[in-house]
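thoughts on these tokens:
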Amino acid sequence: MDKEKVFKKLDEAKSQNLAIKFGYLKPMGNSNDLKDCFQITYEYDYNHISGKIDTTDFHTGENRSININAITGFECPNGSLLVLVYEDRA
């Protein structure tokens, strides 16, 4: 997905104090069937070298990188922004 579109959505969610979550879709799955979902802090950045979004897991403090090209869309359930990611992380 386009970097500008992704960061616009993230910044809008941040300005509205929405929880920002990333959810990894299972193959042939939808947002009701995620293989991994985690909330991030409002500290995120674009890594120009790797082409990924560098984030921090809100609950564990673990650093995570998300391939921006693997982002397929967004949903807004229950006062949060869910960023849908389809990526084989095997």
Notes: The helical segments are 3-15. The radius of gyration is 12 Å. Residues 3-85 form one domain.
